[in-house]
Amino acid sequence: MRPYFSEHFGNPSSVLLEEGAEPQKAVREARAQVAGLLNAAPDEIILTGSATESNNLAVKGLALANRQKGNRILFSDIEHYSIMHQADFLKNLGFEVDYVRVDAYGVVDLEDLKKKAAPGTVLVCVMHANLEIGTIEPVREIALFLKERGILFHSDGAGTCGQIPVDVADLMVDSMTVSAHQFYGPKGAAALYLRKGTALRPVTNGGYQEMGYRAGTENVPAIVGLGEASRIAASEMAERVERLTALGQKLWKGIERQIDYLHFTGHPALRLPGHVSFWIEFVEGESLLLWLNLNGIASASGSACASNVLAADETGLKASHVLTAVGVPPEICHGSIAFTLGRENTEAEVDFTLSVLPGIVERLREMSPLYQKALGGK
Amino acid sequence: MAQGPYSDKVMDHFMHPRNMGEIEDPSGVGEVGNPACGDVMRLYLKIEDGKIVDAKFKTFGCGAAIASSSMTTELIKGKSIDEALQISNQAVAEALGGLPPAKQHCSVLAEEALQAALEDYKKKQQGA
Question: What is the pTM of this model?
């Protein structure tokens, strides 16, 4: 990335200037590398600044450009906020937004989807995998159904692209979001795959960058980073998936063996490799996360308290919509934790986590008046 | 040892909670909060001659909730009932070196637990 901050500082859009040649070539290469990761063509890749931007471009852009197909849009109940929070805006534009249920494992309820994808539906959004509960969605099956009806399908692949093999031709999605930092690329770099021939209206208006879909000068160093991360992810994919699957299973089984009043979240088999998520009764999520962190273990909590601790006020203190959608009672969402193992994680770290977790749980339960009651105390 | 938005004091009380546990045969017990909001606090008081001679707590909650409970027990021990009633949630938050805006409710909960425990004590006194 570094040369593109200095010696290759030129603007890739300055095609007539010599200074623009090297950056232009770098962007072209990066685009091809991202395309290679997804089995797409380079001109099907729109480079953006974040997965959130990609999701906004896809949903608003597809809905607006294809309005003649209808004004009904479906989101799954567990979409990321960068999809969910578009609902009000879309409603203001006159679209109707409806939601598709997921089952207890977080898998989209196909019957519910088929019922709700009524005539007049223009777009359906179902993410490829959910990072909170790890579940991988039956994207191909959904695409097959929608394709027959001429309904567009956007899938947020922030959780899968670069993590597991993703083949957009096989998945048959019309668009898919890619996020660089989810697979060791830089922050501020992302992409949107857009199937050739699909109409999309730009939501950022200006110049003719990114085939006219995304005006604005390209962030060349970040794009180069995204390209390189894509190349590395593609070449290491098979090995990474195998190793992380084994590590994840070890962590899963170890937790299952040692902790009682334990509930895993997400699908037990159809899940991201190395992703282990669960909730523990009588243990509050943020406290668990803090103790893990004090032991040098980073995890994520579905606890409203933890995820919104930086919020300006208390209005954001709600249980996770994902956990609520899979039927976890709100009071219990506070105990949810997700471990996401990555390529730097070792078996020794899994063993260490398994060695400290029971002690932390015991300590927090000892403090909990709820545990006391459950054990028959008063 | 400050961590994220939490002060050193909060982390200290979170990691080393003071007076955690129960009091056998307490003079008053207050339980507030509900699991749906993420925090449940139970405060036990031992009161002799109008003075709080011992205080203990059990709390299910986040770092700020645990630290607020712990700090509250420290602040009230040795105080008279009237003095204890003067302790506000701001006093608890201040003693902890401040709480993040979204966590102020934890100190409110601690104040409420204290009031509930004192209320329980008064009720028991009247019943006795």
Answer: 0.90
Whether the CB-CB separation of A171 and A129 falls below 8 Å is answered with no
Residue located via tokens 């109008």: B50
DSSP string, A140-183: HHHHHHHHHTT-EEEEE-TTTBTTB---HHHHT-SEEEEEGGGG
The CA-atom distances, in angstroms, between A27 and each of A7, A24, A168 are: 15, 5, 21
Closest chain B residue to the Cα of A361, Cα to Cα: B60
As for how many domains chain B has, the answer is 1
Task: Quote the ipTM score.
Answer: 0.90
Q: What is the CATH number of the domain that holds A156?
A: 3.40.640.10
Give yes or no for a contact between A156 and A79, defined as CB atoms under 8 angstroms apart. Answer: yes
Q: Is residue B128 part of a domain?
A: no
What is the residue-averaged pLDDT of chain A?
92
Domain count, chain A: 2
- From A233, A250, A270, the end of a domain falls on A233
Contact A27, A220 (CB under 8 A): yes
Q: Is A333 a catalytic residue?
A: no
Give the separation between CA B83 and CA B90, rounded to whole angstroms.
15
Q: In what order do the strands lie in the sheet with A336-340?
A: A262-264, A275-280, A336-340, A300-301
Q: How far is CA A333 from the centre of its chain?
A: 19
Does B105 contact A at CB distance below 8 Å? yes
- Pair A64, A136 in one domain: yes
**Residues linked to residue A47 through DSSP beta bridges, in sequence order:** A191
Asked if B103 is an interface residue toward chain A (Cβ–Cβ < 8 A), one would say yes
Selected for mutation to probe chain A from B62, B106, B109 (highest A CB count within 10 Å) is: B62
Q: What is the pLDDT of residue A64?
A: 98
Helix (H) or strand (E) holding A340: strand A336-340
